[in-house]
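Researcher: I'd like a structural prediction for the single chain below. Treat it as a standalone chain; there are no partners to consider.
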Amino acid sequence: MNIFGKKKLTLKQNIIPDHLFIEPLVYAKTSFGIKTETKDETVKSYLLGISATQMKKNFKVVEDISSIHEWPFSKLMQRKFDKQKVTMMSRDYLLSNGYLKYFPPLTAVCIPMNRNHLPDDAYSDTTDNEIPALKNYIFQCFDAETANFVNNQSAIASGIYDIHDGEQLSGYLVWDEHKVSAVIIDGQHRYKALLEAMNINKDFQRCRVTVNLIDLVSLCRKNDCKPASVLSDLLAFVN
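Model: Treating it as a single chain, here is the predicted structure.
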C-alpha cells in the first residue's frame, strides 16, 4: 500500500493531550559516507520539501531557543550570525526585481528538550503512551488504515517518528515539540531573510523550501556521543 495516496487533513490545532505533534511531513531518505564491514561513516538524513509557511512553523534558529547558549556549539553559530546580512539578502535578493530566486537547501537537526523545554544532553527512550498517542494523531490526520503503519519501530527516539509502509526510503516524519526542537544549523541567514521577505510579500509563503534534516539520533548512538558533541563536529564542517 502507498501511504502517499491519502489526503492529509488540515488540523487547526493539536488534538492529542500532552503532546505537540507537528503535521506529518513527507520525506525522502538519503545518506552520505563510507560503510564497510569494519567501519560505518555514513550520515543519514531526511530530505523534506515543504512550504515556506511550514518552514517557519516547524523550524527555528539557535537564537530562538531558550538557554541553548549553554550548549558549546551555540556559541559558534551565534558568533557568526549577521543581522545586516539577513536584511541585505531579503531586500537586495528575494524582494528585488529582475533576479532568479533560487533558495539553496537548509540543514537542520532535532535536538532533545527536557520537561522545562530547555536543551537536553541526551535523547530519551520512548514512553509507554507515545506510540498510542501518535497512532491516534495519525488516525485523525489520515485514517485508520494509515494509522496501522504506526508501531514501536516508528520511534527513532522519544519525540521523533518515522512512519512508512515498508519502503524505508520514503514516508512521513513527525516530531513532538514538547520533546525536541528542529533547529537550522546551516542556512540560518537564508531562513531569516525568507521570514523577512514573507512579512513584506505574502506570496513567499507558498514558495517551496528543501530542508536536509540530519539524523542526529543515529550519529549519537553510533558514536556513543552526546548531541552537543556531534553537532560541534558537524558545524565545524558545514560552516
